[in-house]
Amino acid sequence: MRAKHLLLALIPGLALLGACGGRDDGNLRTPGRDEYNDNSGRARTLGRSDPAGTGVLIFGTDRSGDRGGAGGDSGSGLGVNAYLWRATLDTLSFMPLASADPFGGVIITDWYTPAASPGERFKATAYVLGRQLRSDGIRVSLFRQIRGANGQWSDAPVSTGTGAELEDRVLARARELRSQSASR
């Protein structure tokens, strides 16, 4: 008899606890996942749900292209111009990547030794400087080391035009990416 009374006392508590677990509208939720759900009340309330249905936008702007300026970023949610960012990665892809910060706009490569000259190595640091596609939106610093007779690497000067040549290649690739994007 006591077991029956105990069971009757537990049923309302279990029903109340079960009601807290989710909604009955067919969308099962797990705690903490609302911010990733396009149809969540939070996304609709904040107006950050992507109308194309591809996800919740990080900065609350649409992905439709320029953000208020000629050559603005492509709406990718990056902290820098998406065309310059992608073009810099493409241009420096022959060197091993050490670090890339898309919000700060810094790309750092590891040391690269060309097959033609095993006695020297290069390292690059690229800075994407803004959200607009401009000629002064990229800076590339190149470092060079030469291996001495004792096997130790020592710093050596880089040709003055090498950094500028890399910047020009990045800009050309960025323009190419932008024109490909516009033609779609």
Specify Rg, calculated over alpha carbons: 27 Å
Write out the strand line-up for the largest beta sheet, numbering strands in chain order.
Answer: 1-2-3-4-5
3D shape: elongated
Structural class: alpha+beta
Mean pLDDT: 74
% residues in beta strands? 15-25%
The total strand number stands at: 5
CATH topology of the largest domain: Alpha-D-Glucose-1,6-Bisphosphate, Chain A, domain 4
Features:
Alpha-D-Glucose-1,6-Bisphosphate, Chain A, domain 4, 5-stranded antiparallel beta sheet, alpha+beta, 30% helix
Describe what this molecule looks like in 3D.
It comes from Plastoroseomonas hellenica. Residues 27-36 have a biased composition (Basic and acidic residues). This is DUF3576 domain-containing protein. It holds the Pfam family DUF3576. Residues 27-48 are annotated as: Disordered. This protein folds into 2 domains: 2-46, no CATH class; 82-182, Alpha-D-Glucose-1,6-Bisphosphate, Chain A, domain 4, CATH 3.30.530. It has helices spanning 2-19, 41-46, 82-91, 162-182, and strands at residues 97-101, 106-109, 120-128, 138-147, 153-156. The longest helix has 21 residues, at 162-182. It contains 4 helices and 5 strands. Helix 3 crosses helix 4. By secondary structure, the protein is an alpha+beta fold. Strands 1-2-3-4-5 form a 5-stranded antiparallel beta sheet, with helices on one face. Strand 1 (97-101) and strand 2 (106-109) form a beta hairpin.
